[in-house]
């Protein structure tokens, strides 16, 4: 999906909500455990109930890899279900990859070609040659970790390197890489006070913003300091939406939570 198509979906749905499909088998409603593929059954119900309220889904691959081959199969069924039934939805493989060039090429192929996600999250730590293989894919997006939502972000990302915070170096340097127009960046909702500085460096880029809901980030602050002329934000919530209820009404309850966020986004869009 192109960025232009994503922006048009945001305008149409009055939403820049990304729903995180971080499915923990211990947290899903008990009645689903009798299904052949409980994780897919859960995702399908959530997608059916929420697709009109969001513009993106983000399965975090850890929650699928943890169940081995079966988990990988659930991930594949989930992305295929979205691509076949809702091709207008932007998909993010939250895999946080990045390695030496030839290995990154294989990671990129796995997520952007084989599974056919629109984007994949990538760690910048190994530098240019570890990220460029992802950027080489046309009409696909590489979402680079810039300033993450966790407290560990202060261990390295905000430290001064050559007189500038490391996350700023990541933003500035990555802009010089080949096919950098395919970059988006992760900035945690818990770091709202950094958005103004970040927008000075990447005024036009899309930011994937996790950390509202369960991690306590504030949606209004993110919108106030992070939004640009093309909206430029995808705000993710995972647990806050998908585990709204552990009963038979779980999909309906998830839709209600998603609607609450979507309505706040509609206000922010004006
Ligand atoms: O790349 C991410 O999506 C990500 C980056 C970050 O800085 N913080 C962060 O929480 N995430 C992911 O976003 C999701 C947040 O989930 P909830 O806290 O349940 O909404 C998880 O899948 C995290 O792995």
Automatic annotation (TrEMBL):
Signal peptide: none annotated. The keyword Transferase does not apply. SUPFAM superfamilies: Ribulose-phoshate binding barrel. One of its GO terms (molecular function) is orotidine-5'-phosphate decarboxylase activity. SMART domains: OMPdecase. One of its GO terms (biological process) is 'de novo' UMP biosynthetic process. It holds the Pfam family OMPdecase. Pathway: Pyrimidine metabolism; UMP biosynthesis via de novo pathway; UMP from orotate: step 2/2. Gene3D superfamilies: Aldolase class I (3.20.20.70). It catalyses: orotidine 5'-phosphate + H(+) = UMP + CO2. Its EC number is 4.1.1.23. Residues 16-254 form the Orotidine 5'-phosphate decarboxylase domain. It comes from Oceanihabitans sediminis. Belongs to the OMP decarboxylase family. Type 2 subfamily. Keywords: Decarboxylase, Lyase, Pyrimidine biosynthesis. InterPro entries: Aldolase_TIM, OMPdecase_type-2, OMPdeCOase_dom, RibuloseP-bd_barrel. This is Orotidine-5'-phosphate decarboxylase. Coiled coil: none annotated. It is an enzyme of class 4 (lyase). The keyword Nucleus does not apply.
């Amino acid at each position: 999906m192109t960025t232009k198509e994503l922006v048009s979906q945001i305008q149409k749905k009055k939403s820049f909500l990304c729903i995180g499909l971080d499915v923990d088998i211990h947290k899903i409603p008990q009645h689903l455990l009798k299904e052949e593929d409980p994780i897919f059954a859960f995702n399908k119900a959530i997608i059916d109930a929420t697709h009109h309220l969001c513009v993106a889904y983000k399965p975090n691959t850890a929650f699928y890899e943890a169940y081995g081959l079966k988990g990988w199969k659930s991930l594949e069924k989930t992305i295929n279900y979205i691509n076949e039934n809702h091709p207008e939805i932007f998909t993010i493989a939250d895999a946080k990859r990045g390695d030496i060039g030839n290995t990154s090429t294989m990671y990129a192929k796995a997520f952007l070609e084989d599974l056919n996600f629109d984007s994949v999250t990538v760690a910048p730590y190994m530098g240019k040659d570890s990220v460029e293989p992802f950027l080489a894919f046309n009409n696909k997006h590489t979402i680079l970790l810039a300033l993450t939502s966790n407290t560990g972000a202060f261990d390295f990302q905000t430290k001064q390197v050559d007189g500038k915070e490391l996350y700023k170096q990541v933003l500035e340097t990555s802009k010089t890489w080949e096919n950098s127009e395919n970059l988006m960046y992760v900035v945690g909702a818990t770091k709202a006070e950094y958005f103004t500085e970040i927008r000075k460096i990447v005024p036009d880029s899309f930011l994937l913003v996790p950390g509202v809901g369960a991690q306590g980030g504030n949606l209004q602050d993110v919108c106030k300091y992070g939004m640009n002329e093309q909206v430029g934000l995808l705000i993710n919530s995972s647990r806050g939406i998908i585990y709204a209820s552990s009963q038979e009404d779980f999909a309906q309850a998830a839709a209600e939570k998603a609607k609450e966020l979507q309505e706040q986004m509609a206000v922010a869009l004006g």
